[in-house]
Design goal:
Number of strands: 11
Low-confidence stretches: 1-21
Radius of gyration: 15 Å
Structural class: alpha+beta
Mean pLDDT: 79
Shape: globular
Number of domains: 1
CATH architecture: 3-Layer(aba) Sandwich
Distance between the termini: 28 Å
Helix content: 10-25%
Order of helices and strands: HEEEEEHEEEEEHE
Number of helices: 3
CATH topology: Protein Transport Mog1p, Chain A
């Protein structure tokens, strides 16, 4: 699976920075997973594709699902789609990381790249701007889920950590 992750390109989640913010629980029915986002975040879902962004629009994220038996093909197709958004996407040089939480496995890689498309660009970013990205693969739900994020990821690390900790199987 490490080789599959290396071949894909893009971003990490972000959410829930302060405990004083009221979280909203989103359910991704296709993946059989749920997670909390803070009040003020916007999101849209179209079938198995969910797009969300932070209140200040500093982070944009995509949630997509595929069949675990087809993980390699799914990530290859996703990489093709993500290539339409970023160019010169480079991993940070580190091997993909693997974490376990809430009965799920998270494999992720981070890096930087230049925006090609502005449709889902974070606040203040335009085509050719350098952005941080993260790609996380979550297994253990009904279907494999890929989560891509772009934006000010380092600055919002506490929000990302809180979101990651909230991802679990749908109750």
């Amino acid at each position: 699976m490490t080789n599959v992750i290396r071949s894909a390109v893009l971003c990490v989640l972000a959410l829930g920075a302060f405990s004083s913010l009221r979280a909203e629980t989103l359910v991704h029915g296709e993946a059989g997973l749920q997670f909390d986002i803070p009040d003020g975040w916007t999101h849209e879902q179209d079938g198995d594709f969910l797009v969300g962004s932070s209140k200040d629009k500093d982070i944009v994220m995509w949630f997509m699902v595929g069949k675990e038996a087809e993980a390699g093909e799914f990530l290859k197709a996703m990489g093709t789609e993500l290539d339409k958004i970023l160019e010169d996407a480079k991993p940070d040089g580190k091997e993909p990381k693997v974490d376990q939480a809430n009965g799920l496995t998270f494999v992720y890689v981070e890096g930087t790249g230049k925006l090609k498309a502005e449709k889902f660009a974070p606040a203040g970013k335009k085509a050719s701007d350098q952005v941080q990205w993260d790609l996380t693969l979550v297994t253990g739900g009904k279907k494999l889920m890929a989560i891509v994020s772009i934006g000010k990821l380092d600055v919002n690390e506490a929000m990302l950590t809180k979101l990651w900790n909230s991802i679990k199987k749908k109750e």
